[in-house]
Every structure is written in C-alpha cells, then in structure tokens.
Specification:
two-stranded antiparallel ribbon; 36% helix; 3 helices; alpha+beta
Length: 109
C-alpha cells in the first residue's frame, strides 16, 4: 500500500517561495494594479470608475513621491495638529478683524 507524500510544490523542486518571501519582494519593488469600469447604455456613458491600487512599503512609496497620508488629518497626528494650528490662526485673525478696537489682555503666567 502506498501513501501519498505531500502535495507537489507549485514553484518546482527546492525553489519554493513562501508567502513572506513574496510579500517582501512586492513591498520592496512595489506593484501597481490599474483598471477602469465603464457602464454605458445605448452609447451613453453613465458611469466611469477608475481604480488604481499601489502596494508598496512606506519607504518605497516615499521614494516614488507618494506620501499623501502624512498630510491627511485623519491618518496623521502631526497633520491633525497642523490643521488645528492653521484653523486657530485663521480664527484669531478673523476675531482681530471683528474686534480691532478692543485691547488685548495679557495672560497670567
């Protein structure tokens, strides 16, 4: 009676790549997946969706010039702080324009 051995390696004998190796390669080099979906009715374009997906490490993305998450207040505490500081400065400026004659109080230490 023969028993089946393990399943054959999909990458060939001895040259197998595990998920960690594949993920490391993808993150190191990056991968782009692009696609467009168009819905037409009687030659009238009703909807177009453009999909672009980039999978890369943060370092590789920065190297490619992609760093949008650094300026998004929902994703970055530094961006959130900068947004609040900008909003605070704008409000102070508007307040100064509305109340120009009112002397400013000195704050206690």
């Amino acid at each position: 009676m023969t028993t089946p051995s393990r399943l054959p390696d999909p990458y060939g004998q001895g040259g197998g790549a595990n998920l960690a190796d594949i993920l490391e390669r993808v993150l190191d080099k990056g991968i782009v997946i692009a696609g467009d979906i168009k819905i037409n009715l009687l030659d009238i374009e009703l909807l177009t969706i453009k999909l672009r997906l980039i999978v890369a490490s943060v370092d590789k993305a920065k190297e490619m010039g992609i760093d949008w998450w650094e300026d998004d207040p929902a994703l970055s505490s530094r961006a959130r702080h900068n947004e609040l500081a900008r909003e605070n400065a704008e409000l102070r400026e508007r307040l100064a324009q509305l109340e120009p004659a009112r002397p400013q109080r000195e704050e206690a230490p």
